[in-house]
Fold this sequence. Notes:
Blueprint: H1 8-24, H2 41-56, H3 58-70, E1 75-76, H4 98-120, H5 126-130, H6 143-166, H7 191-208, H8 233-246, H9 250-261, E2 288-290, E3 295-297, E4 300-302, H10 306-310, E5 311-312, E6 315-316, E7 319-320, H11 322-326, H12 338-343, E8 344-346, E9 354-356, E10 377-378, H13 380-393, H14 398-409, H15 435-450, H16 456-467, H17 471-475, H18 490-495
Antiparallel strand pairs: 1-7, 2-10, 3-4, 5-6, 7-9, 8-9
Helix pairs in contact: 1-2, 2-4, 2-6, 3-4, 4-6, 6-7, 7-8, 8-9, 8-13, 9-13, 13-14, 13-15
Amino acid sequence: MKRIHISLLLLALAGLLVTCRDLLDVAPNDRIDLDSFYTSPSDAEAALIGAYNYTFRSDLLSNIIFYSNRSSDDLTAPLEGRQSDPLMFRPALNSGSGEPAGLWRASYEALATINLLLERAPAINENLFNNANPGSGTIQVNRKAALLGEAHFLRAFIYYHLVQFFGDVPLIIEFPKSSRPEDNRVPRTPQAQVMQQVMNDLDFATENLPWNHNNLGVLDADQLIQSKGRATKGAALLLRARIHQQNREWQKAIDLCREIMNSGQFRLVERWVTIFDAGNGSQNTSESILETQTRTGPGEFNNTGGYAWFHQDGRPRRGATLEAYNLFEGTAAEPRDVRKVFSMSQRTDNPDQIYAVKYANSFPWWAPEDPFNFVPMRLTECYLIIAEALNELGFPNDEAMAYINLIRERSKDLNFTTGPIPGVEPFSFADIRSQAEFRQKIREERRRELMFEGHRFFDLMRYDAMDNGDRTMKALGLTSPDKLMFPIPESELVNNPLLTQNPGY
């Protein structure tokens, strides 16, 4: 696939500057007048890029991914000790901690931008969208609907993750109409109601988003964002499937994943490492459903903050747990699973010290300017969801076994940079004799495949809900369910007396 470098952040900045300029021209009063903006498709497209920028920036998307990793049994903080990280050792977390406050603030800033777009863009004449930029490629006939679909997806994506971390959160789907803080205070909304809004947004997105945005004329031709960097029908379907999986609505999850797999838009890559191997130009693969795009240049490196999370001065800074390391077959001397070799590194002078290097392997540590994209959604997840769902609906199931073995097959890499890796053996129902045993095998395979990609905390919580278990509590050093959720930030409680605090804080 031809690689296209995308200036997502600069595009967003440009859109935001236009918006801010117009806002600053408004005469001061207690209502915001935006009539001078959102009058043309280019206004809406610029605002959408701004919404992507807010959503994919380091203190939102990166925090979603890495807060889930840190709030789990996969990562440690080797340079400072486990208890120094309140997300890893949850008793230390409190309402004044910066991590939840930053995620909360970034989320609602992004939501304000998205809500404004969803309020204003519908009034723009649809024919203007269809006739815009005729020289920049083939125009989608329903570009206006697709643009709104992208915005609905972004809002659903943010609210879905807010609920996972905080539980009940204020559901705000309108842009503030007043400049007075007391007019904009909203109490926490029950999770079920927030998730219903998430599903409503995803229903709209699924109905109106295309499978791809190839050759879509937006803004100038040189600012075209390729399909992997934008929300598509596949991304909306996969987020819906995650929700049905969480709710144990197994057949609905299966049907949505099959729709993605049967679309012909995505396929598994042969070599697992190519999904992340940015140093060899192997990004935006056929497996990617949603992938953030990186801008690089001389002396620049920006991948929404991932480099800073996993590296310090070009060296690893995060540790993997021994439990995570030992989950993979093989040893450092005789590796069997390329996912282990690529994702973790064991110190020769201290075998108990394991570094998380999945993203370090995306580029040489001495050349961090090499581009690196995050992949929040990829096709592999569909195979894992279907396998889990089929097993829950009935044991044994040959299709579920075939999908898990298809994932395991990619543990082999005979051309890996440090030498051939033979791979692991396939599973068999001759060795797996019960639904419960196969359930555990599927969960372990999911953990191996998606390690450090931002799923583990959500999976632990989901498994505990299914099994009435306490895995998440143990992973976080808790003796009660208190503090499983993030605290509502103290600053938000002060500014908004309608808010209430989560248990344990």
